[in-house]
Input
Amino acid sequence: MSQPEAKPDSAVSDLVRLKGVGPKLAEKLGKLGIHGVRDLLFHLPLRWEDRTRVVPMGSLRPGDRVVVEGRVQHVETVYRRRRSLLVSIADGSGSLLLRFFHFSRAQQERLKRGVQLRCFGEARRGRRGLEMVHPEYREVSADTPVEEALTPVYPTTEGLNQNRLRALIDQALALLDNDPALLRDLLPESMLPANLRMDLREALRVIHRPPPSISLQALTEGEHPARRRLAFEELLAQRLSLRLARARFRQDPARALHGDDRLVPTFLESLDFTLTPAQQRVQAEVFKDLSREEPMLRLVQGDVGSGKTVIAVLAALRAVEAGGQVAVMAPTEILAEQHLQNFREWLEPLGLRVGWLSGKQAAAERRWTLKAVAHGEIDVVVGTHALFQAQVRFRDLALAVVDEQHRFGVHQRLALREKGEQDGRQPHQLIMTATPIPRTLAMTAYADLDVSVIDELPPGRTPVKTVALPESRRAEVVARVADNCAEGRQVYWVCPLVEESELLQCQAAEDSALALREALPGIEVGLVHGRMKAVDKESVMQRFKAGEIRLLVATTVIEVGVNVPNASLMIIENAERLGLSQLHQLRGRVGRGSAASSCVLLYRPPLNEIARARLEIMRETNDGFQVAHRDLDLRGPGEVLGTRQTGAAELRIADLMRDRDLLPEVAEVADPLLRDHPEAAHALMARWVGEAGRYVGV
Ligand code: ADP
Ligand code: MG
Output
């Protein structure tokens, strides 16, 4: 505990303390973020394999990753599509086929009938029964010992195999044994939860080289104290880096936006509805933030249709009342266009000037807008990523609104912040997301943000009834579309990504539109997809909004933001291919009016387990929090939240779901640590967040 750890810079050279490390290998290690011996010690296994037991072939099941041992019975080379070598082995309890696509002559010569092989690999169902494709194998005799302990599998990079990496880590562990000062426990013991007080070196040793007494289950299911000890540190480091980013962000002052109520009350009166209590609460939270000389960084979570846009508009009005400008950003053209329409409709009657910036607009129009923004002739500019670009200069950016933020990264948030920085003052930021997540998870994933939740829908919404039907019942579905249109309602028909390329996807949508036009004569069918020109998309959307188009065939470009209350039926083709949150987003396009709405999920059987679970959840609930919660269980937080912004996918040993019970304690310790032991806090971040932390300003 006495000596401070050396700075990362001087650690670079200490890799040469390891045998066999030259510039070439050092470079490869660098690619893995390993610049010193200590980094190597914190390069943790992705998983462990149980090679301690030889499993009888007779008890093998598809999906098992295990060791088997048997005698070669038969060898053949087949030339079907590719040349492959098939080796069948048997152990008395059963047999197994080994399949190799790449093999050398020497290899082929050694694999003879009667040879005893020990193989490690994954058993899969093949045409001739169970097989292993490219197993690791070696020739053994009756007394060749099996592994004593679990085998770690490390994240690696091209040209650096597991064995080499394992050998390097062995050396690093040996160095640690001789030189305990190499690592120190950064956490004051009082800050570790009592049940996790385990020596750091010991914890690392267990994780890298689990002793024979530890089972795979104990390690992977996360209950083992060594794993939990390290997971706690990692989660803490993650939270610290976000808290620090937050503190840095708030260091520079913002302009306090005290409104003069010249616009806000008039706007509220002009609405043909009143805000829900949840919206009123969130509005108050936002206005309070805006009135302070510290930049707001607030995330508004709210289910699809909960009315987040009004909150954004209110915040914008407050900023304009104070003489500032507003940027409104959305991740897709269609969503940005939708915001443009909303903002224009709501703000222009109040005398505000609303502008548009997109990557796809004509150069002249773009130049004009850029100039107007720079001169302050535009109050609110709406757009896509184009707003982040360097040429965009504001006269006085007071507020940035970012919609659907799980698609934007932290760096973009930072780029934005620089836009307002000319006079050393930060713009306030309001971020909106329709992916609500449980509170404990938000504490870590969004530790740099304040969070508001709109937890109720406007009154009068009728829940969407969802059914899942196999493709074979398409004709019935088409008939239902016809009925719906005959009743004066409108319909979405969504063709999600099935093909790899956007081009093929758009073709699929075109084909569907064609088929539907034929099947539904007399019904006006429109088509929107990602490869259409913005003006064409716009005009189709306008005609759908106006009710001229009754049936809109679309790719998932309509996923977010589109608002046509008269649409009461949505068909989603190939629904088994979509994730839960996407399905929920799409479904949120219907159920916006007072008519009973439904959503038909068309799928192609057979369904795998996950797809079946997803469709089931969709049928069971309309509640976005529920959906998000179930989605987290199915996919894990990295996927759900987007990896870029949370760093969740880069977690080395912690798992936000499995270790979520640690999160409250992590949250409790982080701020005191940062305040009372700043040096330890920084060292902890360098240790765990390292390079990834740099972009959040650590
Ligand atoms: P989302 O949260 O998905 O972005 P929107 O802001 O698009 O939701 O709102 C969905 C619809 O609900 C819009 O037509 C909006 O005008 C309407 N709306 C918003 N707030 C209310 C309210 N308090 N009462 C009635 N309708 C509302
Ligand atoms: Mg929205």
